[in-house]
Amino acid sequence: MKHSWMKRLFCALIACILMLPGATLAEQEAQRAQSGELKVLLKSLGEVYALNITLSGSYSLNGNADMRFNEDANLRVTAVGDEVWLATGGMTLRQGERLTLTRHEKAGDNGLYIGGSPRGKLYCGSLQLTASDGVLQPVLLIDIEEYLYGVLPYEMNDAFPMEALKAQAVAARTYALKRRADRADKDYHVVDTTADQVYMGYDPSYVNAIAAVNETRGLVGLYGSDYATCYYTASNGGQTAMAHDVLGITTDDGYLAVSDDPYDLENPKSPVTSLVLREDGCELPELIEREMKTAATEYLSAMNYSDELENIFIDQILSVAPHTTLSGEPNRMYQYLTLTYRISACPMTPVYSEPTNLDRIHALFGRNTYEPVLLGEKVGDPVVLEEEFSCEISVYDQLKTGLNLKISSIDCELTTVRTQMGEESGEFVIELRRYGHGVGMSQRGAQWMAGEYGMSCGEILSFYYPGLTFTEQVFETEMLPAMDSLPDGVSLDSEGTAVRQQELPALKPGERYAKVTLATAWSTLNLRETTSTSARILTTLPDGWRVIVMGEADGWAHVKTAEAEGYVSSQYLTME
């Protein structure tokens, strides 16, 4: 009996453990550090065969600390066929198909500048350059958080509320990691343009965007156990969209939902284009008026009214109603508007031949032989018709393109119609909204939620990605350790020469020290037997050597070192 009780208790404990939230394993996985490196194709540079690069940090060639660059070195990398050539410091090196400017740890600014980049900002990472058919492919290898420093201020304004910026940081981080997972076997994970996310380098003046990245470090959205794509858009026009409806995405986007977005709709910065149709039919756009009149011509012709457009007049617009969505309800991506209206039209009156004088004489004597001949018809004065007419207007072909109401580059705008009172007539206001694809987070909606309603980053993300769970992950920064300091006298800017000079003797009265100062570190100064350029050369003095000056006359200096004594040109000496 005792063992049975203990067995039941043990089973109950196991059941409790199994009933713990399923996120436990995911949380453990999230805490396991993973690589934070992202490969970014710098597509914005265009198709280039050469790049000028200025380093502003600690870099080696292909990760070899024994082949390092000065921290402010200027480089030129050129593609010649399928080979990369590197020119720097007066030396040109053939590197094969690929080279990498590898970044090492260093305090302060640690990156490089690329000539021709969109904003001329610092690129914080290693740069991999591959040559193919005379073209360079530049791929930046960068830590995910440093990447976001160069994304956030260009995808969302740095002046947006902090909670909106934080939501943008989480969405952008998750998007990049999803792309990395999907393209793990590719040369790059994302491009630096709107094809993925705009990346333009690090600018420390964007303090809010940088803070938003730091305050959400490692925070990502998961759909099940995978990263979500976390699409976002400038403005959804008042309703969120599904990826498969707008972008043709076939992968599961069940973490999204079609729902009304009052925050985007309320934001006065959300783009909108509009067309006003007066109820009395006056001042109609030519395209709309032509379509309305054309729709009535078949009926008018059958009822013996003129079907010429100039003889048809729009008297009143009764209603304007959108219908037929691109992907079914509840989407409001309406394809058509139905206009109902009344018109005036001109009846066609028959025209007969007139009797001749002879016909009239015959008629006087009772012999009416005249038979009128139908010559045709004439247009009568317009009359108001009681019938109601209707026509369809295409939203995307006629309004968006024909009347230039375009907002988005793809056909996904939302169409609404509202009525208002004008100065002379009631009006139907047709509005098109949605800037971008409308999928995921609306940046204008997030701005309004945070700024006007004080909503948090988490509330914004939950509203736009209702099917996601958010978790904090740990990413390792993949950067080579700092390089050891160079030995004294090794760098190009070191003083002195490569030859060790013997110590000079002590000065005697009237003597003084001077330094040999030449144009380059590799030049030498001739020490001659007498004060003549044709005199025998006793030895040469390297740039930077010290001498003792015993006297000067006629542009010549009488000097000595520990090993020799003679004459040199005074212009190449700098007195100490």
Brief characterization of the structure:
The chain has 576 residues and is an alpha+beta fold. The protein is built from 13 helices and 35 strands.
Describe the 3D structure.
With 576 residues, the chain is α+β, with helices and mostly antiparallel strands. Among the domains are: 34-230 and 465-472, no CATH class; 272-346 and 381-434, no CATH class; 512-575, SH3 type barrels (Roll). Helix content is 22%, strand content 33%. The protein has 13 helices and 35 strands. The strands form 10 sheets. The protein has a 7-stranded mixed sheet with strand order 5-4-9-11-12-2-13. The radius of gyration is 41 Å and the shape is elongated. Residues 1-30 have low confidence and may be disordered.
Helix percentage: 10-25%
User: In terms of structural class, how would the helical and strand content be classed?
Assistant: alpha+beta
Mean pLDDT: 90
Number of helices: 13
Q: Output the radius of gyration.
A: 41 Å
Shape: elongated
Point out poorly predicted stretches.
1-30
Work out the strand percent.
25-35%
What is the spatial order of strands in the main beta sheet? 5-4-9-11-12-2-13
What gap, in angstroms, lies between the N and C termini? 103 Å
How many extended strands?
Answer: 35
